[in-house]
Automatic annotation (TrEMBL):
InterPro entries assigned to the protein according to its UniProt record, in alphabetical order: Phytyl_CoA_dOase-like
Pfam families with a match to the protein in the record: PhyH (PF05721)
Name of the protein in its database record: Phytanoyl-CoA dioxygenase
GO molecular function: 2-oxoglutarate-dependent dioxygenase activity; iron ion binding
Keyword terms: Dioxygenase, Oxidoreductase
Annotated organism of origin: Inhella crocodyli
Superkingdom to which the source organism belongs: Bacteria
Length: 268
């Protein structure tokens, strides 16, 4: 069944777990048929629109981690239908405990065979947003065994301020991983079954291993924010870039209601 809109049976225990740990992995969120139907187009566009042509050995740690293409929803009506799906949007809103969510942007992540680690980081370093009511849905388009580099999370790290000023880099991997270990934060990692989707807060620290398999790891991500989210002044150049790219025309102090940030799901 190709279905993007029916509600997922999210329980009070799921919401409590997410609030405590800053992430959750949910099984059977999307059917194999749905992932095959939309995943082929997502993968095709990622390969076609990617601009990274250097061999892996010539790239930085960041560039070895994955090929990435942003806002595929604007490139294809089929991908647009996927990104605006009510099922994922409702899960995001219920986990965040907000009345609705907007799109911040989408991002495909294609970790090539032999692709390197994704260093430890927190996504919200890049975002000029007024609150922590942000969540990323990490949606594998196939099963992800350990050898392909599944995403892992530092449980309960969403309140840790150390490392929030570090972008994805060798430095972030070394410093954040060491700080997490020093303070005893559990790193939770493991394979993703087909149809399993994770959701993590913008300030939850996370990372992924290298892809040591002979197959690519194709993943789609959708970043949601509270529908009432306001823009704040950029704290660094990458936030200024994100503001200009993903929130064009938004004004500081006002709700980010631009053409690129439609409401995906709203409670009736």
């Amino acid at each position: 069944m190709i279905d993007l809109d029916t509600p997922y049976a999210l329980s009070a225990a799921h919401i409590a777990q997410f609030r405590r740990d800053g992430f959750i992995k949910l099984k059977d969120v999307l059917s194999p048929e749905t992932l095959a139907h939309y995943g082929a187009e997502i993968t095709r566009l990622t390969i076609a629109l990617n601009t990274e042509q250097r061999p892996l050995e010539e790239r930085s740690t960041y560039d070895k981690a994955f090929l990435q293409v942003m806002n595929l929803w604007e490139q294809s009506p089929l991908v647009g239908r996927f990104v605006m799906g009510q099922r994922l949007g409702r899960i995001a809103a219920e986990l965040l405990q907000v009345g609705g969510v907007r799109l911040y942007h989408d991002q495909s992540l294609y970790k090539e065979p032999g692709g390197g680690i994704t260093p430890a980081h927190a996504d919200q370093y890049y975002w000029p947003l007024a609150s922590d009511r942000t969540v990323t849905a990490w949606i594998p388009l196939q099963a992800v065994p350990e050898a392909m580099g599944p995403l892992g999370f530092y449980a309960r790290s969403q309140s840790v301020e150390f490392g929030r000023d570090l972008g994805i880099s060798d430095e972030s991997e070394d410093k954040i991983s060491a700080n997490m270990a020093r303070h005893g934060f559990e790193f939770v990692s493991g394979a993703f079954e087909l149809g399993e989707v994770s959701f993590h807060l913008g300030w939850t620290f996370h990372k992924a291993g290298a892809n040591v398999s002979d197959r690519p790891r194709s993943v789609m991500t959708v970043i949601y924010m509270d529908a009432a989210m306001r823009l704040v002044p950029a704290l660094n150049p990458v936030q200024a870039n994100d503001r200009d790219q993903w929130c064009p025309g938004a004004r500081e102090g006002e709700v980010i209601a631009t053409r690129k940030n439609p409401v995906v799901w709203q409670r009736a």
